[in-house]
Amino acid sequence: MDLSVMFFGADDASAAGRPTKNADGASVAGHTAKYDDIMAITKAADRLGFTAVWTPERHFQQVGQVFPNPALLGAALAVATERIHVRAGSLVLPLHHPLRVAEDWAVVDNLSRGRIGVSVATGWHSKDFVLAPDAFADRRERAWRDVELLRRLWAGEAVEFTDGTGERVAVTSQPRPHSPVLPLWTTTSGSPQTWEAAGRMRTNILGATIGQTREELAEKIRRYRDAYEQAPEQPGTPPRGTVTLMAHTYVGVDDEQARRSVGGPLKAYLKSYVAQTAANKGGADGRAGALTEAQLDTLADFAFQRYLSWGSLLGSAQTCRKSLADLADLGCDEVACFIDFGLGADEVLAGLERLAELREEL
C-alpha cells in the first residue's frame, strides 16, 4: 500500500494578517507561514519516501482558504522536490475550461518531469460557483464530459472549440506535457453512483473513510472494481484502477498522547466544516445552521470518537498499523494521509517521521 500526504486546510480566518511562526521558527504573516509550512512538510515527505502530496481546490471558505489553485501551488512544490508526485486533490472541473486545465497541468508536469496527477471533482458548494454560475446546475454532467476532453487534449489531439467570433476552430493544447498519459482520479464524497462512474471512465478514485461504515465502503469499492473491469479500455490506463482513501492521520508516541494532541484541533476543524456545509445553498437543508454551540460540540465529539474507532490513522504506530492492514483488506491501494486539520507544523512533522518508520516496516 502506498502512503501519501494530503493537505485540506484548517485555518483561522482571523489570523490571516497576524504575524505567526512558521516551521522554521521565523515570524511571518499568517498565510505566508501556512505556505512555508506546506513547503517544509512536503519537502520532508519527499525525503521520507511518501508517494505523493495532494492539494485541494477551495474557494471563499475558512476551511482551505489557502488552496484556491492546486496547479499554482503544485508548480512550487514540483520545483522544490525530487521524487514525490504532485497531485490535485481535487480540481473542480466545472469551474474551468478543459483547455486551461490541460495547459496548467502540462506546465507542472514538465517542471516535475512527469510526477503529476489530477483528481477531478464535480464541485459541491454553491459559493464556489460564483466563478462559473452557469455551470452549477449540470456540474456532474460537465465534469464527466470534460474528463474525456482532457484525455484528448493531453494526448495532443486537436479539439474544436468556439472562438471569439463565434466560429468553431481546432485547438491543440500547449505546452506539450512531459508524460504521454494524464493520471486521473475521480473524487467522490461517498455516492455509489460516483464510484461506478469512475469505474466506467476508467479513472482512479479518490474517496474517504469518513461518513460511512466499513461495510458500505467495501461495497463501493466492489462496485468500482466491477465497473472498471467491464468498461472499454482507455489508452494508457492500467488494467486495474487505484483506490485512494483519505484518512485523518497523526501517529503519536502512544495512543493517549495522540488523542490528547489531536482532540482539540480536530473537533474545531469538524465544527468549521459543519458551518461551511450549512452555508451551501446547493445542498444544505438548514438544520446544520440551526445547531447551537453546545450541539455542535456534541456532534464534533461524536465524530471524533467515531474516527478513533474506525477509518483514521490517529494513535500509536501499533494502532495505525492495524488500521492500515484493515484498509488494505478492503482493497485500498493508497492512503492519502490528511495531516493539516489543526495541528502545529512541528507536531505534523514529528508524526510524519513516525509514519515513515511505520511505512518502512510495512
Automatic annotation (TrEMBL):
Q: Can you give the residue ranges of the Luciferase-like domain?
A: 30-333
Taxonomically, which superkingdom? Bacteria
Pfam families attached to this UniProt entry: Bac_luciferase
> InterPro entries given for it?
Bact_Lucif_Oxidored, Biosynth_lucif-like_mOase_dom, Luciferase-like_dom, Luciferase-like_sf
- SUPFAM superfamilies per the UniProt record, alphabetical: Bacterial luciferase-like
The UniProt entry, under NCBIfam families, shows: seco_metab_LLM (TIGR04020)
Q: What is this protein called?
A: MupA/Atu3671 family FMN-dependent luciferase-like monooxygenase
Give the organism the record lists. Answer: Nonomuraea purpurea
The record lists the lineage as: Bacteria, Bacillati, Actinomycetota, Actinomycetes, Streptosporangiales
